[in-house]
Amino acid sequence: MIYFLVFVGGLLLSSMQSLNGLLSGYLGLFGTSFAVHVIGGVLLAAFILLVLRQKIRLGPMPWYLYAAGVFGIALVTCNSACIAHLGAALTSCLSIAGQLIFSILLDHFGLLGMRRVRFDRRRLPALALIAAGLVIVTAAG
User: Fold this and answer.
1) Name one GO cellular component term (predicted).
2) Beta-carbon-side half-sphere exposure of residue 11 (alpha carbons within 13 Å)
């Protein structure tokens, strides 16, 4: 089930990137990021308050965890800019490459409080195939 949820997350991410790219033509990059976060915040607040019937909490937690919000703004802004110039497929491929590289570092070194999962060299062939696919998509794009 968890693999299916990750797959659905990927579908939603690609859809969001494409819609944000179109939206940026109307609102600009930062206007798009603002609109996406305000709409998402309002809908999420309504869901928490009305459906879950819970209070909204923003802490206590370490101050640096609020950086996730900053990263969200940067993600929406960067993807909105790139999708218009590169298209959905190439933007997604490059984004996945960045996610993969940083995820390997996060796992291997246990950064940001992640459980440490050392890099296994047996993953190299799969990474090489992903890199080859990225090169092919980039060259064709």
Assistant:
1) plasma membrane
2) 6
DSSP letter for 51, please. I
* Residue-level pLDDT at 107: 94
Q: Is the pLDDT of residue 32 over 70?
A: yes
- Long-range pairs for 45-51: beta carbons < 8 A, 24 or more residues apart: none
Q: List, for residues 115-131, the tens digit of each pLDDT value.
A: 999 999 999 999 899 88
Asked whether residue 93 carries a pLDDT value surpassing 80, the answer given is yes
Compute, in degrees rounded to 10, the torsion defined by CA atoms 127, 132, 134, 135. 140
CB atoms within 10 A of CB 79: 27
Has residue 141 got a pLDDT over 70? no
Please give the Cα distance from 27 to 76 (Å, whole number).
Answer: 13
| Angle formed at CA 113 by CA 109 and CA 114, multiple of 5 degrees | 60
User: Taking the model in full, what pTM does it have?
Assistant: 0.78
The rounded distance, in Å, linking the Cα atoms of 33 and 31 is 5
Per-residue CA distances from 139 to 90, 122, 128, 134, 135 (Å): 10, 27, 16, 8, 6
